[in-house]
Amino acid sequence: MHLQHIQQSFTPGVKAPDVHNPARWYLYQGDRLIVDERNGAPAIPTATALDMLGLAAERVEYLGVLQDEQALHCFSGTMAEGSILPPGFAAHDLRSLFGQFSDFEIGLAGRAKQIAHWDRDHQFCGRCGAPTEMLTEERSRRCPRCGLTSYPRISPAIIVAVTRCDGEKPRILLARNHRFPVGRYSVIAGFVEAGETLEECVRREVKEEAGVLVGSIRYFGSQPWPFPNSLMIGFTADYAGGEIVLGDGEIADAQWFTSDALPLLPPKISIARQLIEAFVANAQAGAAT
Ligand SMILES: [Zn+2]
Q: Of 229, 33, 17, 258, nearest to 122 (Cα)?
C-alpha cells in the first residue's frame, strides 16, 4: 500500500546536516514542480548543491532522509516565478506527473510542496507583521517580536463511500463536482469545520451534497492531498435513508451506481479511487457467493 510507503522509507527532519552527499531538490515554481528531463523521463533534480544544476531557489527547507539504495537527504524550495530554467529542466503541475512518478515519489513531492508553500506564505507574522524565523528543533516559524508560532497548515477533509444493499445489487453514491473533467464522478468529500468531529462532518457533507442520511461509519484510511494542503480521511458508510437531492453549489449530479456500470473515475493514486475499488471488490465478492 503506497499510503504507508512514506513512513517506511522516509524519515522526516527539520535540521539539515552540515555536509551531505548528493541530495534531492524538490523545487516549486508556483504550483509546478521542477524536474530534470536531461535523460528523457522526468526525475527529481539531484546534486550536492543547487548551483551545480544551474538552479537557484529563493528559499530552501530541509525535509528529511529518503532511504533508497543509499540515504539521500531531501530539500524543498521555491524558485522565483518567471525565472528561466536551464536546458533540460521543466516545470510541471504535480497532477500531470501522476503515473510518471511512483506513488511514493508523488507523496514526497507533495510533502515538499506543502512545506515549501507554507514557508513562502509565513515569512511574516500573521499577528504583528514582523519577519518570522525558521526554528530548527521543530517544523515551525516563530515571530521574534510577539512569539506567535506558525506550523505547516494541514486542512482535514473527510471522504466517504456511501453504499447501500437494499436493491438487487450493491450500489455506491457518486457525485459530479462542477470542476471535474467531463463525465467523472467520485465519492463525497468536504472540509472539516472548526469544532466538528469527523463523524459529524461525514453526516453533514453527505446530507448537504446529496440529501442522503448515513448510518454506521467506518474508518478506511487516509492520504495527504497537497492541492493545496488537505489531509483526506477516508470512511465507508451505510445508507440509512433519503432520496438524492442535490445541494446548491458544488455538485452537478449524484447517482447510485452498481459496480458493473461505473462512470469515469478519479486517478488511481487517489484515496477516492481506492474507496471505489474497495466497493467494487466487495460487490464482486458478494456476487460470487
Ligand atoms: Zn508577531
A: 229
